[in-house]
Hints:
This protein has three helices and eight strands. The chain has helices spanning 15-26, 63-67, 85-97, and strands at residues 3-12, 29-30, 44-49, 52-58, 77-82, 102-104, 115-119, 125-130.
Amino acid sequence: MKLKLNHVAVMADNSHELAAFYREVVGLDPMVTPGAKSVDPNSYKWLKVGDQELHVVQRDDALAPRLALEIDPLKAHFAFEVDSVEGIREITERLTKAGVKWMDWSPHGIPGKHQVFMVDPGGNLVEFQLGGSYAS
């Protein structure tokens, strides 16, 4: 299984203002931001950082309780890209064997994008996703 860093997600009280800051002040380019099933598509924006991405996500403390999730995928996190379905299966098996809670976000997330979230022993939210970036 090969992993590479895909994106970092930051939280904002106003995702549009923070995304504008990263575009206008820092100089990042906007990119296609696909809609998710359980999240308002206007509440997050994706920006290009070289070959990686910065995802600016609207703070929504009600999302996890509303969807009865133990892990909130909209918290600040970083994401690894996994090279295959077998790789996703391998990482979830490793997490389960290590006693780490994980959640498959795919039923709620971006159609066609397999996403698994976990909280590491340091308390950091980490995503594993199948496939590459969306084209800008």
